[in-house]
Amino acid sequence: MKRALITGVNGMDGSHLADILLDKGYKVYGVERRSSVKNRTNTNHLGDNPNFEWVVGDLSDQNSLLRCLKQTEPDEVYNLAAQSFVGESWNTPEHTSDITGLGVLRMLEAIREYGTPVKFYQASSSEMFGRMVENPATENTPFYPRSPYGVAKLYGHWITKNYRESYGMFNVSGILFNHESERRGFEFVTRKITHNVAKIAMGLSTEFALGNLDAKRDWGYSPDYMEAAWMMLQADTPDDYVVATAETRSVREFLSAAFSQVDITDWERYVTIDQRFMRPAEVDVLRGDYSRINSKLGWSPKTPFEDWVRLMVKNDIYLLERGRV
């Protein structure tokens, strides 16, 4: 039985990855920080699975990561933990740099000190491209991050590659473009939209505020992207891959798709613009070219845009009906 260690297991990606690996017959260990209040909304369903276990660790403490490795003896490590909200990175740039950037270094050093070969996956981000030098972006597109989050992710990406080349480690980076699911946090624009659409449909609200409606993103579905992460660690040789859909949609288009799930077409009257939600430096368009991972590993996105938007809206209606949010 293969053993996998996942940081950020309680997040959207981490919880979906845990589901995928358990279905594949893995023993899965989920890293969470020591806390008096556990944030297990996305992982409560794993508690009774005999092949899943929580371990305590923190990306700000290298020794705790080494203890996690010694305790779990993993074949694979998936680093999905981060301060992952781009907007918040402007308010907490030092914390974002420490966890999202230097946290990767600490895990790599812990693996190196552990001494037993471990395959390592780093969740890199399309935010590293920022101001797109070319569109769509490939693995060879120059980086130009436009936020503290993007800069921190770029450090994590390069240190992963550097340790691969310097120490012969099996390290890969998935350069993930925007991806969502019904487990997305409420601070993210996609979940903010679907949650408020559900509230409006149920008569619980009449409007909500957003920032830039013209920003365009290459949006996919999180479980599809976590399948790609697993495939990267099953390859014969380590490499870095763009994971995307090669399609872009604006926030306006996302709004239209979400409201259409509750049969509302004149969505503009429910949405206001608030300057507080505008970024100091906006990334206008992000689009990725996934042809490399398609040709080398056979991966392609499976879930259409409209399908996962529908899942998100239906899930938020379900949660509201049962008083869970």
Rounded to an integer in angstroms, the radius of gyration calculated over CA atoms is 19 Å
Helix/strand order, N-terminal first = EHEEHEHHEHEEHEEEHEEHEHH
CATH class of the largest domain: Alpha Beta
Q: Give the CATH topology of the largest domain.
A: Rossmann fold
Number of strands: 13
Strand content: 15-25%
The best one-word shape is globular
End-to-end Cα distance: 37 Å
The structural class is: alpha/beta
Main beta-sheet annotation:
7 strands, parallel
Mean pLDDT: 94
The overall number of domains is 2
Total DSSP helices:
10
The helix content is 25-40%
The low-pLDDT segments are none
Quaternary structure annotation: single chain
Overall CATH architecture of the largest domain: 3-Layer(aba) Sandwich
Query: Which strands sit side by side, in order, in the main sheet?
Result: 3-2-1-4-5-6-11
CATH superfamily of the largest domain: NAD(P)-binding Rossmann-like Domain
